Amino acid sequence: MTATLTTSTRPRANPGGRIAVPRLPRRLVPRPRLVGRIQEAIGNGVIGVIAPAGYGKSTAVALALEEVDYEPRWVSLDSTAHAPEALAHQLGCALYRNRLAPPPPTALRLSDLQAYIGAAVHDVAASTPRPILLVIDNVHELADSHESLHLLGWLIEAMSDGHEVVLVGRELPFLPSINERVATGEVTVIDATVLAFSADEVRAAIDVTGARADPRHVLEQTGGWPVGVMATLAGDAVPGVSPADFHRYLASEVWSRVPANLRQMLHRLALQPSIERSFVEIEFGLRAWRDLVAWLNRRDFLCEHLSAREFRLNPLLRQFIADDFAATDPEGFQSAMEGVLSSLTRMARYAEAVEMARVQGTELQLADLLTRYGHHLIIRGSFSLLKEAFASLGHATLERSPLLHALKARVEAHIGDPDEALRLAAQLIAAPGACGPARIHAHLARLRALRLLGRHEELLAEAEHLRAIDWSGDAALRAEVVFQRAEIELSVTRNFQRAEELLRLAIDEAERHQVSPLDLLARSTLGQALAMHGDAPAAVTMLTRAAQGWRALGRSSNLGWTLNNLGMAHLDAGDFRSAVAVLEEAVAEGIACGNRRNVAYATGSLGDAELALGHFRKAQEHFEEAIRICANEALDETLAALAIAGLSAAYLGQGDLQQADFFARRAMLVALASGNPYEIAYCRLRQAAVDLAAGNAASAVSLAREAAEAFEQMDVAPMAAAGWYRVAMAQFRANRRAEAQDSLAKCAEAIRQPWMTQSLIPLVRENPMFAQWAASRPAAGRWFRDILERQSFLVSGDAAEPEPEPGTGRFPRVVARSLGRVAVTVGGRQVSDEQWASIRAKELFFLLLAHRDGIRKEQAVEMLYPELPREKCNSAFHSNLYRVRRALYQDCVIKQDGAYLLNPEGQFEWDVEKFEAAVERAHRAQPGSKERALAFQEALELYEGPFAEVFESEWAAGVRARLHEAAHASLAALAGYFAARNDFESAVLCLERILRNDRFNEEAAYELARYRSRAGQAVQALHFIDQYAELYEQELGEPLPERFFELRAAIAAGVAV
Questions:
Q1: d(Cα 686, Cα 538) in Å, to the nearest integer?
Q2: Most Cβ neighbours (<10 Å): which of 23, 171, 189, 205?
Q3: Sequence ranges of the domains in the chain
Q4: % of the chain at pLDDT higher than 70
């Protein structure tokens, strides 16, 4: 078998089949009551629409989608979704709106499927300004699949940041987190009592269908069951049709009346997820489609129209027809099933094909699929699917096929019972007829089982036996054998040189025969091994190619893992800036895939890179974030120990010895509890640095020596060199210079290649004077001396940590301007109108700024959407809340005690708050004082114009009026301050500014004329009064108040005013 490389290039959106959103039926019964209930439920992340068959669940949700500001996605599940691999692929197709989207590249761990789905959610969210609303129809199909339910629960959590999941089905699957929220009322479940037709809706149905019926009689007869109502009005129903009679109704009133030519057609079509015109015309002729559509037009409540050329049968009708097909024509049923399975395998949907054969096909069909594609699924790690599939095969089937027998042993070895795997493998190996691939698979099963059981001597003997087998069969199997042998050499015998040879051979075989993703697994493994054994440049080369391959293949947790290892390889090679760039991508990849463990590791590694650059504050932030994730989201003692030790170094770099010592000791306790030799050595080295800084050179020497010797035993040369250099530093501090030279010699001995000296740069920066002394010692080798001399005299640009932005912290600083202009920056980046996506989203953010203590959703929608019907406000609020979070950052808005507010841990700077604070400060100051005047001036410098004129709502108008009044009062007060000091020119400038915004402010105009006169500008004052009088009469239709003319006369006469 040769596995083919899956391309990451996705065709354009290709919705249809199970991922198509149903079109509304031609004879649509308006249901505003029900649609309103669904829309009101939006906002908590999950909605349940749960009722028995025939309650119009799908139609109701499709109708609600027409009126919400969300990006709709839809998937209709069937029995194949029982397999988590198939469910993940179907969800991916739905999210991308592309039924040809490639399947998950790997499925070894549930995290691989999570990465695949998480990446799809991230990609779709990045491509649209609207939040996603994902409808999962027929969710009851997952009821008996623990792993699929776990995947669904994870998806709901991953989409909880503003998106919505609607679960539609006959029963709500058991999801503890969701059931708990249902019990508390946080999640709405719309059930049969809501979905049933009311009396008004029955009357509307009668009007739509044109039937002659008594609404009360129909309601009594059907209990409001929607399909019963529509069937009754179509003239098909027997008296008393109800949900309990639906099967009888299908048999006696639907299927019995289907013309014979359509029955044969529907038998075969019922096995398809959807029915397409092209398929019908090719298989049954041009007229067949017209006949089928004509029959269904009178019963459109039994199907969902997806387009003019495609529809989906009601799930119960589809199952009824399939069961009838299997019962009345078993051979025809299996032949049709064979066609469906062939279609799935042609599209490389192997997991879906296997699961369909398991549930609906024959054992022979399932065995055939496992024979052809079992090894491919093993390479991809689809062991959950395979375990269920092999459990469905009988003993006789397995006994007749040595290959299936061996593949079952392999599955047992991976996720079942290793002892059972050994038993099955032994049976096959002992069988005289077992040869070729079957025998190889049996040995691979033994290899895995022995490794799990820790029986290393037998494991090594088995690996040798596998090597000795003279076989040149299937290229994919040959490549895997080489890879598995390399894994043994790497992890058991520790023969790195032999492991490297085998991994390179595995890569060559896998790439030559396109065995994916085995080629990338081998390349990633080799890159990690090269890094661990001190060949950082080679590791960088190998991991760079592996990362490129994982990107091309599609999202899996392997990309994040590879990027983290690549970043650390750059770090070991001394390329600290490249390490930062790669690790930032690793963090982003982990977030996109929803893999918090990968995020934690990449964030901790990013802390190491910033530490190496001498950016201690940044390093501290990264280590603290990694520790937070470890504590709350992805428990991992190894990372916790390393991150806490790194945090100690970050504090030490900032001169906080007390905090550095606290965290160094805490890290040591965690490492000792885990018992990992590398972690213990690493933490000892960190504690040695703290002790040396505290003046305890003896303790530093002891700890650093223990660490260096441990790293030597583990053959981690760069860390051993760093350990011996730390020993020498401590000995030098203790005036034990001869011993320090001996330690330097050991350090130089550990440096086998020029690039290894880069790992010492942070230590050289720590004490340049010691580095100069060390460079002058004969113990320092040529490469060693070169790095010491260069780094001890140069202040590297890397080491100069940039000044942090004001208020730097976990969240970026948000600066909002709304006086005269509306602009928002996040971390110095301007938020564009395209990023806001709607003016209402921008207005919602400023509304939250104006209510820093929080505002309830009901208050917010009343202020923002006074014109919208109440039921539509909920979805509008949540879609714009999503846009605010997308434009700024995810945690910028939180919900607390039923109210929404800007995150108190965030940093929000608003010119309105600064303006009002300055005005308040002025009012508290002594009247007429300079302090008061300066505060007013500060406020007026901020007031560049009216508040947010683009917002036309009443709340914004109220804020605008309040600030306008405060600004004018401040100008008037400032004008009075200047006039009192005979600075009439400045007073005039203040009043002119008032009049620019309020032309008919009589008090400002009067005082302006008076101050100009007192400034010796009598002519200008008289001219201003004349112009103002003319404007006043033109605009207001009445003469200027008499006091202005009295002032004019006084100024003209030279009387003091």
A1: 28
A2: 205
A3: 17-195, 202-255, 258-328, 476-575, 695-796, 813-838+849-912, 929-1052
A4: 94
Phi, psi of 828 (to 5 degrees): 90, -5
Token digits of residue 6: 């899956």
Q: Counting beta carbons within 10 angstroms of the beta carbon of residue 1034, is it exposed (0 to 12), middle (13 to 18) or buried (19 or more)?
A: exposed
Question: How is residue 905 written in tokens?
Answer: 């841990």
Task: Collapse the DSSP code of 135 into the 3-class scheme (helix H, G, I; strand E, B; otherwise coil) and give the result.
Answer: strand
* pLDDT, position 1001: 84
The DSSP symbol for 627 reads H
Q: Structure tokens of 185?
A: 């009322």
Q: Which strands sit side by side in the sheet containing 899-902, from one edge to the other?
A: 855-856, 899-902, 893-896
Average pLDDT, the chain: 87
695 phi/psi in degrees, rounded to 5: 90, 5
CB within 8 A of 628, min separation 6: which ones? Answer: none
Token reading at 290: 């017209």
Contact 712, 690 (CB under 8 A): no
- Phi first, then psi: give them for residue 419, nearest 5 degrees: -65, -40
- Is domain 929-1052 in CATH 1.25.40.10, yes or no? yes
In this prediction, residue 800 carries a pLDDT of 53
pTM, to two decimals: 0.80
Q: 476-575 — its CATH code? A: 1.25.40.10
CB 524 within 8 A of CB 561: yes
- CA separation for the pair 210, 98 (Å, rounded): 39
Q: What is the pLDDT of residues 856-884, one digit of tens each?
A: 998 998 899 887 777 778 888 999 999 99
Question: Does domain 813-838+849-912 match CATH 3.40.50.620?
Answer: no
Tokens 């969710």 correspond to 139
CATH of 258-328, one of 3.20.20, 1.10.10, 2.40.50, 1.10.8: 1.10.10
User: In degrees, to the nearest 5, what angle opens at C-alpha 284 toward C-alphas 280 and 288?
Assistant: 70
Task: Name which of 192, 220, 234 is nearest 55 in CA terms.
Answer: 192
CA 88 vs. chain centroid, Å, equals 15
Query: For 61-82, what is the mean pLDDT?
Result: 92
Between the two ends of the chain, the Cα-to-Cα distance in Å is 105
Helix H or strand E encompassing 411 = helix 402-415
- Looking at the chain, the whole-number percentage of residues with pLDDT higher than 90 is 47
Query: Nearest to residue 725, comparing CAs of 750, 744, 699?
Result: 744
Question: Which of 173, 177, 184 is CA-nearest to residue 160?
Answer: 177
Reduced to 3 states (helix: H, G, I; strand: E, B; else coil), residue 374 is helix
d(CA 1015, CA 981): 12
Phi, psi (rounded to 5 degrees) for 780: -75, 125
Within 97-175, residue ranges assigned H as helices are 110-127, 146-158
Assess whether the previous peptide bond of 131 is cis (omega < 30° from 0): no
Polymer length in residues for the chain: 1057
Neighbour count for residue 695 (Cβ, 10 Å): 11
Domains 476-575 and 929-1052 alike in fold: yes
Distance CA 870, CA 876 (A): 10
| Contact partners, residue 1027, CB within 8 Å, separation at least 6 | none
Q: Any idea which fold 17-195 has?
A: Rossmann fold (3.40.50)
Burial of 223 (0-12, 13-18, 19+ CB in 10 A): middle
Residue 807 is predicted with a pLDDT of 47
The amino acid that residue 549 corresponds to is G
For residues 45 and 812, what is the distance between their CA atoms, to the nearest angstrom? 26
- Burial bucket for residue 391 (CB in 10 Å: 0-12, 13-18, 19+): exposed
Return d(Cα 776, Cα 17) in angstroms, integer.
76
How many Å apart are CA 885 and CA 162, to the nearest integer? 8
Whether the CB-CB separation of 459 and 451 falls below 8 Å is answered with yes
| Dist CA 341 CA 347 (whole Å) | 10
